[in-house]
Each structure stands twice: as C-alpha cells, then as structure tokens.
Design a protein that fits this description.
It is found in: Cytoplasm. GO terms for molecular function: rRNA (uridine-2'-O-)-methyltransferase activity. It catalyses: uridine(2552) in 23S rRNA + S-adenosyl-L-methionine = 2'-O-methyluridine(2552) in 23S rRNA + S-adenosyl-L-homocysteine + H(+). With 206 residues, this protein is α/β, with parallel strands linked by helices. The protein has a single domain, classed as Rossmann fold. It has 7 helices and 7 strands; from the N terminus they run H-H-H-E-H-E-E-H-E-H-E-H-E-E. Strand 4, helix 6 and strand 5 form a beta-alpha-beta unit. The longest helix has 22 residues.
C-alpha cells in the first residue's frame, strides 16, 4: 500500500521521534504525556489527592500522568468517544461529554464534589479542510470551557490545547474572564510546526 507524501513524512517523524521512543521506554501511553508532564512542572497543576477531569482522554496519555500523581487518595474522571484501556486511579466514561446522558454520568461520578483541575488535549477528527478543522477545534475547546464553568471549584485550574487561528484569540479572552491568571505554553513535546499551544488558567473565579 502506497503512503502519501505527508503520511510517509508523519510515519518517518513518528518512528524517529525521541518522545515516542521515550514514551515506550517509560511505559507511557503516548508522546503527549510529556506535554502534561512539562505543563505540570511549570505550572504545578496536579497534586496528590486531587479530583481531576480529563476531557477527550483516549488513548490515556494525560489520564495516566494525572492518575500517577493524584495517587490512591485522588481520582481522575476521564471521558472520550473512543474506548480507553483501564488505568490506575482513573474512572473512564465512554461517550460524548456534550451529550446529556454522558454529562449526567460525569456528574454522578464526581458525586457532588467540585473538580480541582480540568485538562483537555482534545482535537477533532481532521478533515483536511483547514477552516472547517479550525472551526471544529474551537467548538470543542469552547465546550471544555463550558464544562469548566460547571464543575471546577473556585481557585481551581484548567489546561487545554488550542490550535492558533480563527477564533483562538477570542477564546483566550473568554478564558481570561474566568481565571486570575492565564498563560500560553508550547511544550517541548509539541511539534514545532504544529499550530497547537496550551492555555493554562490558574485560580478559577467561580
């Protein structure tokens, strides 16, 4: 089977990617784990005993990192439309978190508690049509912010992937209205040519 130039380039990059090799060695589910590790080192987002929500969690790279840090006294509530294998200290709900039944399951799982941290490395299925993909991506991140405003405790934190482009500046302004401090990060494990950045909101105003 012949690969297109771009998919062949992706395969070459992936096979030779130091973060892919490191993830295999460290027993981590994906190279994206290192993005959360770096965000956490810089912004001190996750602590033992925390309740964390991971939106768009499959294959589990971020949930795995968070689950290890929160430990037995903490919990990660993860959700994705795709299946995800079991992880320690993680409860997984398969489905679309924007649908009422899945949202109700998430609320049942947190059982009246407020969440300390909401993280999301979510991305839409890519169609290849730039404007449509950007719109889909912004729609998803806006939905994660809606969730934050419903479940995050005052003083809590939020970390989300955003693709820079149409709508991203407006989204940044919107996040700033809800948090004491917002920073933009480009972790080392984020491919340089990718338009992705991570917004970290600290100190939710509630």
């Amino acid at each position: 089977m012949k690969h297109s130039k771009s998919s062949r380039r992706w395969l070459d990059e992936h096979v030779n990617d130091p973060f892919v090799k490191r993830a295999q060695k460290d027993g981590l589910r994906s190279r994206s784990s290192y993005k959360l590790i770096e965000l956490n080192e810089k912004d001190k987002l996750i602590h033992p005993g925390m309740l964390v929500m991971d939106l768009g969690s499959a294959p589990g790279g971020w949930s795995q990192v968070a689950g290890r840090i929160v430990g037995d006294k903490g919990r990660v509530i993860a959700t994705d439309i795709l299946p995800m294998d079991v992880l320690e200290n993680v409860d997984f709900i398969q489905g679309d978190f924007t649908e009422d039944d899945v949202f109700e399951q998430l609320l049942a799982q947190i059982d009246g508690r407020q969440v300390d941290l909401v993280v999301s490395d979510i991305a839409p299925n890519i169609s290849g049509v730039g404007a449509a993909d950007q719109a889909s991506s912004m729609y998803l991140v806006e939905l994660t912010l809606d969730m934050v405003r419903r479940v995050l405790k005052p003083g809590g934190h939020y970390a989300v992937k955003v693709f820079q482009g149409e709508g991203s500046e407006e989204f940044l302004k919107d996040v700033r209205t809800s948090f004491e401090k917002v920073v933009i990060r480009k972790p080392e494990a984020s491919r340089p040519r990718s338009r992705e950045v991570y917004l970290v909101g600290k100190g939710f105003k509630g």
